[in-house]
Amino acid sequence: MSTIERFETNKRMSRVVKYNGILFLSGLTADNPDDDVQGQTRSILAKIEKYLQAHGSSKDKILTAQIWLKDIDRDFAGMNEVWDSWLPEGTAPTRATGESKLAAPKLLVEIIVSAAV
User: Fold this and answer.
1) What pTM did the predictor assign?
2) Which pLDDT value is given to residue 2?
3) DSSP string, the chain
4) Would the N or C end of the chain have less CB density within 10 A of its end CB?
């Protein structure tokens, strides 16, 4: 049986969980909530790359993504523009995008991914 490894863990959550060759990243938000949706998306994707690389994976190994937007009508196209330019050709994961009230008023996007190691 594989061991469950948890990283950057506190009482409430772990930032990364590794199990059976799969990384599960928690929801990530931008460092600067004053950025527009494209800036926030770029910030989040940079974080995702950092966490994936730190744990033996990469963006071309992403299996699934959940993307939450504060206002899907306003921000879907802008977020997708950044996402599409970031993701390597031919490596699109399964994905769902929805609208949600996020944890802080200025947050426009939150992204959750799982990836193979």
Assistant:
1) 0.95
2) 83
3) -PPPEEEEE-SS-EEEEEETTEEEEPPB--S-TTS-HHHHHHHHHHHHHHHHHHTT--GGGEEEEEEEES-HHHHHHHHHHHHHHHSPTT-PPEEEEEE---SSTT--EEEEEEEE-
4) N
92: tokens are 């699109």
Residue 1 has pLDDT above 70, yes or no: no
Residue in the block written with tokens 């959750």: 112
Provide the β-strand partners of residue 114. 24, 64
| Average pLDDT score, the chain | 97
Tens-digit pLDDT profile for residues 78-103: 999 999 999 999 999 999 999 999 99
Token couple for 35: 């950025």
For 6-23, give one letter per residue: b (16+ CB within 10 A) or e: eeeeeeeebbbbbeeebb
